[in-house]
Amino acid sequence: MICKEIPKVLYCHIGGSGTWGCEFPEEVGFEGLTVLKTGMEFETPYGTTVPMKLYELDASVTADHKPRQVLYCPFHGWAHLSAFNETPSERLFWVLKEAGVKYILADGSGGGINPLLEPGDLIAPTDFIDYTKRISYLEQFNPLVTRMRDIVCPDLHDILVEEAQKDFRRVFRTGVYAVSEGPRFESAAEVRMQWNAHCDICGQTMMPEAALARAIGAHYASIYLISNYAEGINPQWEKTIHAIYEETAPKIGRIMIRSIAAIDPEKIACHCDDNLVGTNIGEHNRGV
Ligand SMILES: [Zn+2]
After folding, report:
1. Which structural domain, as residue segments, surrounds residue 74?
2. Is residue 267 part of a domain?
3. Other Cβ atoms within 10 Å of 287 Cβ, number
4. CB 197, CB 179: distance < 8 Å
5. DSSP-derived secondary structure letter, 41
6. Does the pLDDT at position 150 exceed 60?
7. How far apart are CA 169 and CA 282, in angstroms?
8. What is the CATH number of the domain that holds 140?
9. For ion ligand 1, residues whose CB falls within 5 Å
10. C-beta separation of 52 from 277 below 8 A
């Protein structure tokens, strides 16, 4: 259903393969959460978004003891859309900008490149290398230069890790995420290259999300389930990557809800806002 009006919300959960094994948030069974709207599609200059949900956390569970509304977008806004050709992230972030979203948490999963990582672990990366070749529309979201310093908000990152540690035995609080070009997975040689470049996990979603979040002036942090070993890392591994999702989705769902609830805007002390940098390059006449 196309919604003409974009709700004003400060918080967004971008769902991914960390939570796709269940109907989120309904099947998570979180007390203090009420689903307000479902099936909300929005028209944007990049096309129509996937259906999103709006839920409310009541004052008894939030850090500032006020009720808060949260926009939930399933599977990174991709659904049937091609991440390469159809700008699903740009559709989503256009809506988030209009909504006034300031705090974004994302979940996902990926292949473990670092041999220390095992399927079933969680990792909250603090940086990325973008191996994709997609066209960037970043300047359409903000004309300023988008600096990648502390691209993962340190404050939101700490909240995510703290909440994750309550439910998972092994949570890695740092790491580099190799963003690969979907829809295919990486070859063994590509994974070797990414490991040589000090990447720990490979996946397809951290970019352009992280940069778009910064461009719209929002804080962003994400956490990923290691669903499998990356190609060539452990050839003996025989489970399918889907085996783990149904088991972990409700747990990761609760982590995401608790983390959104734990954000206290009054206590956020990061410097994310300082990383949109003005430039006077446009004022120079380079042709002379
Ligand atoms: Zn921040």
Report:
1. 11-279
2. yes
3. 4
4. no
5. B
6. yes
7. 51
8. 3.40.50.1580
9. 153, 219, 270, 272
10. no
